[in-house]
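Researcher: We're teaching a course module on how sequence relates to structure. For the next exercise, students receive a sequence and then see the predicted structure as tokens, so they can try to spot secondary structure elements on their own. Here is the exercise chain.
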Amino acid sequence: MSGNQEHNNNQTSASARHTAVRGSQQARGLDTKLIHFGGEIDRATGASSVPIYQASTFHQEDILNPPLHDYSRSGNPTRQALEDYIALLEGGADGFAFASGMAAISTAFFLLSAGEHVIVTEDVYGGTYRLLTTILNRMNIEISFVDMTNLEQVKGALRPNTRAVYMETPSNPTLKITDIHAVTEWAREHHLLTLLDNTFMTPYYQRPIELGVDIVLHSATKFLGGHSDVLAGLAVTRTEQLGKQLKQLQNSFGSVLGPQDCWLLMRGMKTLGARMNHSEKSTAKLAEWLSGRSDIQRIYYPGLPEHPGHEIHVSQSTGFGSVISFDVGSGERAKQVLDRVQLPLVAVSLGAVESILSYPPTMSHAAMGAGVRAERGITDGLLRLSVGLEDVEDLIADLEQALGNG
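Model: And here is the predicted structure for the students to work with:
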């Protein structure tokens, strides 16, 4: 038997073992998968976490029978553990780790070619909006922003050159809800690629691949990491064929996540369930408290029965998350709240153990012009709060003093 034949046979048997293990893992509950994901124990030493392989390259004993890893841009054992981890949680074929959420999103969009068209959620994250309107448009990729709460608007945006549909649900920052299954079913009829940003819900509350989505994307900096200490992006493909295409792009662009950050992210992901459950309960109480105030113009939270899309969200998700947006009436009053709060971090980002209060007009959606923001409901009085792990009564008391008498 030649060296190449032996190598191929070894890869085939390893792949078969991996498939069998993945199958048994998928049958477990998500809380179990968060802890027992296949990389929780180092097989060589029994260590309770995968090692940080801080190496850029790997020795090849036989160049005709190369090892699985040869150069860390193409693949690293620590990164592979993370990529297998997120693929397991999302129920996809292949996972990929990137240097940031925008690196993951940007790389996925490069599956498109010049002259093609993509339909996008109109109130998409500001960084994604910037990518689409200042970079991809220069590469002759056409974009239509539509209100994806209205399936007829999605259908009406179809063109002969449409290649993909990009969803964000709940959307950022007004938490609009898209009917994922309805969009993917329609997209499949027209042979369109579907992509979805699952940052707010994470696989703990929402599993888009099971609803027909082709590629799921995450800013793992947020809830998956959960501690405001790592910048990361993740992607999961529904099929191995798409995985091969995305792998080629990941390797070509090289915006991969380093091994230490991979390890930090995996450590954060292990506590995802506990953090999401705690924060969601607090957010529900805070939403109820805000609803009782006459000086709040509007509240955006899918857990409220009156929230547009509440029923659709319930049908496709198992929780409501811990991001809530609310309009305090004016930019001047929003600044007052931002200046007075003592507990939440006033900052860009979300999904951490500490509560984070953001001002979308100058933070997450600063890339949008004022007119575009107004069209999408991102008013001057809008605040977005990511509820952390503090005592909710302390958070409410802090917001009460920051809001004052209205």
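Model: If you want an answer key for the exercise: Residues 1-14 have pLDDT under 50 and may be disordered. The chain has 15 helices and twelve strands.
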